TrEMBL record, chain A:
InterPro entries: Peptidase_U32, RNA/ubiquinone_mod_enzymes, UbiU. GO terms for molecular function: 4 iron, 4 sulfur cluster binding; metal ion binding; peptidase activity. PROSITE patterns: PEPTIDASE_U32. This is Ubiquinone biosynthesis protein UbiU. Belongs to the peptidase U32 family. UbiU subfamily. One of its GO terms (biological process) is proteolysis. It comes from Pseudidiomarina salinarum. Forms a heterodimer with UbiV.
Automatic annotation (TrEMBL), chain B:
The gene is ubiV. The keyword Nucleus does not apply. Keywords: 4Fe-4S, Hydrolase, Iron, Iron-sulfur, Metal-binding, Protease, Ubiquinone biosynthesis. [4Fe-4S] cluster binds at C39, C180, C193, C197. It comes from Pseudidiomarina salinarum. This is Ubiquinone biosynthesis protein UbiV.
Length: 331, 290
């Protein structure tokens, strides 16, 4: 079972490989990936350097090119594939069926993974994408453990699941809430609730208000921890009650599911967070390396060490973690 | 320009659905999509009921298409999907590539629904090779985007082989989740939802803490808080859009159909409601009204 860690920069990439990642995933500095944030990601020279560092440690480099190509700038996506192949990437993570088709035909030896942004939630969808020679599918975070198990038992393709990090409550690649509010979505611009639309206002009584493109996402009382206004994690009013109508600001944490994921033959555990710091990546990677080693050494005797939970909670949104959709109660 | 009625997105009692389609049969609509696209637990109408409606509408001169589920997770949902794909009479709208996969297997033509991620000319061309005959454009795309795409040589060569359809009226489907937000709003777990969404035939409104309507909850689907309304943009669709889709609303759907038909060359400015939007088509944030 592979540990796949995020890197938005060279220091983060080094932190991942030095702390036990089996593979690292990165993106290019443009709209071709779903974490298109200012100051993040690599250019062509950075990508080649990343490949050298990762390969020197005997690990793998995955490159996410997982947004949907625009008609007038199709060349940007084609060039991203060429650039990643040239730089020595081991794997491309793709979502757009045209980009998949191009990569499959132009680089027949390059390993292709289906991005979570392609939203393959069932065996028939996986079958559809097989025509593009994919070797692995990254499963969306909307599936329960039962559903993951059902897919694992009906397909012989490698499966990758999200193990830890920010929780997307919508089927990835099929959520336009961000473009509805701001004009930019993960699919079209590679970003959800983009930072340039965020505004913080403090009212006279000390209440802090977070807005996205002028729309009020949440209000925080003085002293209350205020989180980034990701639009699905705000408090809204439904039927006279104000609450997190869609989702609380929590992080996904599947440590306790590790033995089950291992038993079902899940090929890879993905840690979310290319936007995170090198220190964050180092700490998360260390915990998950220990956990995976423990489950592989003794799957039946595995238990979650308190220290792991403590570290992960300290690195989570609102210090809260959840099993998300994997757990039935979440629904 | 043809007009269509998309599949009913809300959970309505059987009687209400049947009345709606009797009105559709008497209306001037050209194409009708039938089926459950949001939640497989909603079973007021079963496959046989939809087929009965399909035959009634076909006899009334409508083109009938069967629309299928968007978020398919369980093996039982795939079995149900297969029934619709194997119906043997009517064209199928696939809202998940799993549907395309089953239709492709049987070498059947298909309509790519608005939740299929098709954003560029190469993707359109690939889908055409697989059997797509009509492409329903993702709701977040603009007129400019569509024009750029359809203007590519790869597409102009084959433009006669497929129709384009645009979602132009109604609350827009914006997201699908593993969680049921209607059940959550009633503090019910999803597997004990007791189909409470049937009490909300227009969904549940979500407002910001300062009173702006931001979303509508419809089971596992999140819709736009505004009603999308492109009645004044039909002129700008000429030459780009073959089919204009109206999404069934609880009230006034057929009045709006008439307003759309009367304005298909865009001669008049129809007054919009305060909560109408047209931003996406105009290359702006979706909730904007210009």
């Amino acid at each position: 079972m592979e540990l796949l860690c995020p890197a938005g920069s060279m220091p983060a990439l080094k932190a991942a490989v030095e702390n036990g990642a089996d593979a690292v995933y990165v993106g290019l500095k443009d709209e071709t990936n779903a974490r298109h944030f200012a100051g993040l990601n690599l250019d062509e020279a950075g990508l080649a350097e990343a490949a050298r560092v990762v390969h020197r440690h005997g690990k793998k480099l995955h490159v996410a090119i997982n947004t949907f190509a625009h008609a007038d700038t199709w060349e940007t996506w084609r060039r991203a594939v060429d650039m990643a192949a040239r730089a020595g990437a081991d794997v491309l993570i793709l979502a757009d069926l045209a980009v998949l088709a191009y990569a499959a035909e132009r680089y027949p030896k390059l390993e292709l993974h289906l991005s979570v942004q392609a939203s393959a939630t069932n065996a028939a969808a996986i079958e559809f994408y097989r025509q593009f020679r994919i070797q692995r599918v990254v499963l969306p975070r909307v599936l329960s453990m039962n559903q993951v198990r059902a897919i694992a038992r009906t397909t012989d393709i490698e499966l990758e699941v999200f193990a830890f990090g920010s929780l997307c409550i919508m089927a990835e690649g099929r959520c336009y809430l961000s473009s509805y509010m701001t004009g930019e979505s993960p699919n079209t611009a590679g970003a959800c609730s983009p930072a340039r639309f965020v505004r913080w206002d403090e009212t006279e009584d000390g209440t802090l208000e977070s807005r996205l493109n002028d729309i009020l996402i949440d209000r925080f009382a003085p002293g209350e921890t205020a989180g980034y206004p990701t639009l699905c994690k705000g408090r809204f009013e439904v039927g006279g009650e104000t609450y997190h109508a869609l989702e609380e600001p929590t992080s996904l944490n599947t440590l306790s599911l590790l033995p089950e994921l291992y038993r079902e033959g899940i090929a890879s555990l993905k840690i979310e967070g290319r936007q995170r710091s090198p220190a964050y990546v180092a700490q998360i990677t260390r915990v998950w390396r220990q956990a995976i080693d423990a489950v592989m050494a003794d799957p039946t005797g595995f238990s979650v060490a308190q220290e792991w939970d403590r570290v992960l909670a300290s690195l989570s949104e609102g210090s809260q973690t959840t099993l998300g959709a994997y757990h039935r109660k979440w629904k | 320009m043809k007009f269509s009625l998309g599949a009913i997105q809300y959970f309505w009692p059987k009687q209400v659905v049947q009345n709606f389609y009797r009105q559709a049969a008497d209306s001037a609509v050209d194409i009708v999509y039938l089926g459950e696209t949001v939640c497989s637990k909603r079973r007021e109408l079963k496959y046989e009921d939809y087929m009965e409606l399909a035959h009634m509408l076909r006899e009334a001169g409508k083109q009938v298409c069967l629309s299928t589920m968007t978020l398919l997770e369980a093996p039982s949902e795939l079995r149900e999907l297969r029934r619709y794909c194997d119906n043997g009479e009517f064209l199928v709208e696939a809202n998940d590539v799993g549907g395309i996969s089953l239709l492709q297997e049987n070498q059947l033509p298909f309509i790519a629904g608005p939740a299929i991620n098709c954003y560029n000319h190469h993707s359109v061309r690939r889908l055409l090779n697989m059997g797509m005959t009509r492409w329903v454009v993702p709701v977040e795309l603009s007129r400019d985007w569509l024009q750029d795409l359809l203007g590519q040589t790869l597409i102009t060569d084959v433009r006669g082989c497929f129709e384009t359809e645009v979602f132009a009226f109604g609350h827009m489907p914006l997201a699908w989740s593993g969680r049921c937000f209607t059940a959550r709003s009633e503090n019910r777990p999803k597997d004990q939802c007791e189909l409470c969404c049937i009490q909300y035939p227009e969904g549940r409104t979500v407002t910001s803490q300062d009173g702006q309507q931001v979303f509508v909850l419809n089971g596992i689907q999140t819709q736009s808080g505004t009603r999308y309304n492109l009645v004044n943009q039909l002129g700008s669709m000429q030459g780009l859009v073959d089919v204009v889709r109206l999404s069934p609303q609880l009230d006034d759907t057929f009045d709006w159909l008439e307003k759309f038909r009367a304005n298909q060359h865009g001669e008049t400015q129809v007054p919009l409601a305060k909560l109408d939007s047209n931003g996406y088509w105009l290359n702006l944030a979706g909730l904007v009204q210009k």
